[in-house]
Design goal:
With 253 residues, this protein is an all-alpha fold. The chain is built from twelve helices and no strands. The longest helix has 26 residues.
């Protein structure tokens, strides 16, 4: 049994996606254990599944960086990283009042319902009608949701120039360069705003696929769903983001 586990870790270290998938799936119970302990501390203000989703990101990172040759137990190595990932997410949530988090969930739920009914992504006026508020209120909620999400937008420094500040890149830029940069930042702002309106599971699927670079069948194992269901969630989330961004940018033009 120990020899089998060693071979599995060796395969994972060598880049075997199937080995990584199995190791993540085999250790999901540890994520639930850590998440339940933290939930007992923070209370019912945060849903267990939200903590598990955050902790899963820490588990994936732990699997990718664990060195079995050092003789440490994986649970000992992974637990602090899982806990750290959950606490990082809680700190991010701390920047948003509980009422704002409820509003974000309401926006996501209503948007999904209207999308299903209309066969397309609803605009702000349709969301406002469904919530019995005015359009300005919807825009305000969306803007506040954007403020509590941190996504680095600054252009990364050139190789060897790790201390360069964003302002350093302005010097020497043409008017066309600056305009292009402004447009890119506007698009990123819109993307952040609409990402927060996705359901939690959609955000997790996109994060695991695009940032952790898991394959669909790996994400299926992590979340306990079928690969076809993960594919549907990813496709729907991307289509929703695309349509919302196109509509938003069209409204601003």
């Amino acid at each position: 049994m120990a020899n089998e586990a060693t071979k599995l870790w060796e395969a994972c270290r060598a880049g075997d996606a199937d080995a990584r998938e199995r190791l993540v799936a085999d250790n999901l119970a540890l994520v639930h254990h850590v998440a339940r302990k933290i939930q007992r501390t923070v209370g019912d203000a945060v849903e267990l599944q939200d903590l598990v989703s955050a902790g899963t990101m820490g588990l994936v990172q732990a699997v990718e960086t664990f060195d079995a040759t050092r003789g440490h137990a994986f649970s000992t190595f992974a637990a602090p990283r899982i806990r750290g990932a959950i606490l990082d997410e809680l700190r991010r949530w701390d920047h948003a009042p509980r009422s704002l988090r409820r509003t974000q969930r309401t926006l996501a739920k209503v948007t999904e319902q209207l999308t299903s009914e209309l066969g397309r992504v609803p605009d702000a006026s349709e969301i406002a009608d469904a919530l019995d508020v005015d359009v300005a209120t919807v825009h305000t909620w969306q803007a506040r949701a954007e403020e509590v999400v941190h996504v680095p937008l600054d252009r990364p420094p050139e190789p060897g120039d790790h201390q360069a500040a964003p302002a350093d890149y302005v010097a020497g830029m043409t008017a066309e360069d600056i305009e292009e940069g402004i447009n890119a930042q506007q698009e990123a702002r819109v993307l952040r705003q609409h990402l927060m309106q996705l359901r939690e599971r959609e955000r997790v699927v996109l994060a695991l696929y695009y940032f952790k670079q898991l394959k669909l069948h790996e994400i299926a194992q992590v979340l306990g769903l079928t690969e076809s269901r993960i594919s549907q969630i990813r496709s729907k989330a991307l289509a929703t983001l695309r349509e919302r961004m196109v509509r938003e940018m069209a409204d601003q033009s």
